[in-house]
Design the sequence.
């Protein structure tokens, strides 16, 4: 019986191959969609706001607690580049925490936008783009992302 359990465990854990850099880059492109990638590749401008956590039970309804403020263009480009770097994300892990966004950003380019909301309690990011989006873990890049968010909001 122990042998069967051991073999089953090895089969389940060993069948998932390690994703290649190409696989991760494809996952990023799929996550944001082609239009989202275009916006984040060269944003014209960006804005940021704090988010009220009073509506944490309905993250989509979480209202901005502050008026959007313009982000320094260099800081916006640096944060957008980090959002396109697959090394900052774990696309293959599920968490049990409740997403409670702390801060939001909206990046603009050529009449399109990508909205990004960060929850620093659980290390997840929620993205809405014209043809992509979702909720993913930014734990691998949390220190870098937090630093860039702080820099972008330091006006």
Sequence:
């Amino acid at each position: 019986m122990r042998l069967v359990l051991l073999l089953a465990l090895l089969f389940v854990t060993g069948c998932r191959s390690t994703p290649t850099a190409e696989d991760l880059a494809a996952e990023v492109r799929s996550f944001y969609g082609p239009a989202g990638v275009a916006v984040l590749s060269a944003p014209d401008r960006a804005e940021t706001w704090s988010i009220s956590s009073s509506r944490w039970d309905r993250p989509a309804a979480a209202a901005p607690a502050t008026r959007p403020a313009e982000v320094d263009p260099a800081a916006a480009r640096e944060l957008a580049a980090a959002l396109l770097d697959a090394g900052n994300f774990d696309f293959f892990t599920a968490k049990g925490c409740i997403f409670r966004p702390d801060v939001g950003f909206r990046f603009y380019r050529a009449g399109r936008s990508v909205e990004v909301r960060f929850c620093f309690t659980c290390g997840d990011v929620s993205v809405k783009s014209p043809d992509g989006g979702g909720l993913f873990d930014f734990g691998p890049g949390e220190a870098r992302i937090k630093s860039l968010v702080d820099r972008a909001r330091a006006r």
About this structure: The chain is about 35% helix and 25% strand.
